[in-house]
Every structure is written in C-alpha cells, then in structure tokens.
Amino acid sequence: xxGVTQTPKFQVLKTGQSMxxxxxxxxxxxxxxxxxxxxxxxxxxxxxxxxxxxxDKGEVPNGYNVSRLNKREFSLRLESAAPSQTxxxxxxxxxxxxxxxxxxxGPGTRLLVL
Amino acid sequence: GNSVTQMxxxxxxxxxxxxxxxxxxxxxxxxxxxxxVQYPGEGLQLLLKATKADDKGSxxxxxxxxxxxxxxxxxxxxxxxxxxxxxxFCALLPKDSSYxxxxGSGTRLLVRP
Lengths: 114, 113
Known about the structure:
Oligomer: heterodimer
Largest interface: A-B, 29 and 25 residues
Number of strands of chain B: 12
Structural class of chain A: mainly beta
Mean pLDDT of chain A: 92
Radius of gyration of chain A: 13 Å
Order of helices and strands of chain B: EEEEEEEEEEEE
Number of helices of chain A: 0
Largest sheet of chain A: 7 strands, mixed
Distance between the termini of chain A: 36 Å
Distance between the termini of chain B: 41 Å
Radius of gyration of chain B: 13 Å
C-alpha cells in the first residue's frame, strides 16, 4: 500500500495564478483532510471531508476550495494564489469519525508563491 | 478552547542521551493525544498515541503517558540515536470535534554522534 500520496511535490506560482493540489489514499478511509504547515505554527486545518460527497471548512479556509472527487481522492484548489499561501501542504486521511481515529499523512507539497 | 504547548527547540543531545520533550494541553473533556514525527523532507508519521487517561503509548523506544491531572503528554526516550533527529509534534484530537487535530508548534531534535 502506498498510503497517502500527493502531487506535485514542489510548485512555484506567480501571484494570481491558479493550481490544484492532488491527494489520493489507498487505505479505504472515509475521511480526508488538508493542512498547511508554516514555520513555528504546527499544522492548521484548511478543509476536511468527513465522507465521500461532503466537505467542511477548517481553521483557515479562505482562498481555497476543495473537491472530494471520490472516496480515494481529495483535491485542494487555489483560484488566485497569494504570497501568504506560500507553505507546505499536507493531505491526511483517517478511517472515520471519532477521537480515537488516527490521521495518516502524505509526504507534502511545498508551494512557493512569488 | 483547545490548544497544545510544546517546549521550544531546538533540543541538541549527544547520542545515547536521555530525551524528554514536554507537551501540555488544554481541552474540554477527554481528548486523544498523539506524537507525530517529521524527518527532514518528509511528511508526518504517527509515532505513538494514547486515547484515555493513564494510557501509555510506545513505539521505537519512545514513550508518553497521558496524565490527566497535569494535562501533559511528555515524550521520552532512554537512549537517542542520530537517526532520531527530526521534528516532533504533539497533537490532540478533541472529543467534541473529532476531525480537527490540533498541533503544537513542533520541537526540533538534533542528535550528535
């Protein structure tokens, strides 16, 4: 099993450009998440999808949209990139709801917005 | 609200030294607690977890005990190796909002030969 995979690994954008970050999991998990990691701040939740067909905002959703394409895939879109969105983005998945459920993380996408 | 506080890094140790990374939390109810590790250039990996008070999580020689009375989940290892050099994140999953993992700011560990 590959676990959680993300593409691309690294991307440079100019301010105002758009892009989509892709995430897929092969663990048959119901729930998927997008986080961003900024220096000295740990990870912060952008959006999550509790199950196929549902998405909800997390702590820092402004400037992002998501699509839960099917049970395996959960994409994050930046419609008009801003320098403040320079960050490392992590996708994660878990079996489902419940505070004993472990979230498993992908390797990350490093995004630089100029 | 819910929050996690970790000791400031970096922590620099010699190989075979004893490691403690402090983590305290604030939460309503009884959250689950996690330690994740991030090796250079990689994503986060679950190191260990505990889901109720007095539980001890352990993995790869690392241990942490869920202490409700002190709201702490300190990470320990008896003898660190150079390969343990990484960033360690303490996190909690609240009982009342079971999707939102709340992370500490991370502690960088550097182990020298």
